[in-house]
């Protein structure tokens, strides 16, 4: 009988105690996911592999600040998110685009129920086809919710915004995505 | 993809093994959080002290009496309000709010609510210090003995106002039929004539020589054409006689 594989959190605990190879295992588990997240979030000009590598380095340096009673994935995504945002800031000419006005107020939020699985699948397909027309903020929230399957609360922790803001941003991003595809269909139809 | 995967893992592990990258100790991480908390606390403490000082300057200069002088008094009050200090305070609160957002409880709350909470807290503490503790009186005493360094001037003359302005805390030296002569109690300037409009010439009967009065009006040279004044009580008591002249 083979032992069940260790969870991310269990591995993180061994890394905190000095198990470097364990960190290699965590990199293996999250590398592809973070690269996909980065490729969907950042413009193609960014060197996403370098940024993801830096995110892992930062994760290793700060691994002792990780609370192993919480889930590891939102924690590593939060580090990657910060690295991606820093990369965006480096090249942004308009600093106002980085101000989160939607974090200013409180919004009522209702998480999308799981029985909307069909819509979830459709959105996933649309997102996979391309998000280039959307703003980084919209791209990111769609990727985290539809591709990475994080809950509103986890996304709130990754983006470091109130949960209500996640709901508002997601609603706005879905609408933008629909508009983009409607426009594309009209063009193709003409 | 497979190659990318291998490279990142290997490169990260290589950096760790070579010692180029090392794990921060728990002590270092705690120190970093402690430093952050200290900066937030320092910003909030300075903010409380600034609010306290704003309250003190308004109290000491009696500018709040302007609010009882009708619309023109309110305009004067707004004009003379120490906006620069309030702006500095707002900047400090924004800094504290931005830093607090690095903590979980900070980013979980909407920014405006967090900012408003900090503003209300610092305002309340500032007012409390000014009104319920001898802090400012002691600071003033120390400033008069030049023990506050760069804060000496700030505390010794907290809110002088423009010498050519139409607001004056004056000591009456002579009383005429519709005017009084006085000197500015806060600055050594030449005597000022305070002219009351005809309909309130009798206001002069309520003052006596040597009394301090607070006057607001339009200034022309050494004459203030008053639209509101009140006689100053001894420190700690309320205004004795407030008069508003509506024109």
Strand order of the largest sheet of chain B: 1-2-3-5-4
Distance between the termini of chain A: 62 Å
How is the CATH topology of the largest domain in chain A named? Rna Polymerase Sigma Factor, Chain: A
Radius of gyration computed on alpha carbons of chain B: 28 Å
User: What's the gyration radius of chain A in Å?
Assistant: 18 Å
**Approximately what portion of the residues of chain B adopt beta-strand conformation?**
15-25%
Structural class of chain B: alpha+beta
* Residue windows where pLDDT falls under 50 for at least 5 positions of chain A: 186-190
Helix content of chain A: 55-70%
Largest sheet of chain A: none
Q: How would the global form of chain B be characterised? A: elongated
Describe the structure.
- The complex is a heterodimer of chains A (190) and B (247).
- With 190 residues, chain A is mainly α.
- Chain A has helices at 8-16, 20-41, 48-61, 72-91, 117-129, 136-147, 152-159, 163-189.
- With 247 residues, chain B is an alpha+beta fold.
- Chain B has a 5-stranded mixed beta barrel with strand order 1-2-3-5-4.
- In chain B, helix 2 runs antiparallel to helix 4 (83-100), helix 2 crosses helix 6 and helix 4 (83-100) packs across helix 6 (111-132).
- The radius of gyration of chain B is 28 Å and the shape is elongated.
Give a brief description.
Chain A is mainly alpha-helical and 190 residues long. Chain A is built from 8 helices and no strands. Chain A has 2 domains: 8-93, RNA polymerase sigma factor, region 2, helix turn helix motif (Rna Polymerase Sigma Factor, Chain: A, Orthogonal Bundle); 105-189, Winged helix-like DNA-binding domain superfamily/Winged helix DNA-binding domain (Arc Repressor Mutant, subunit A), CATH 1.10.10.
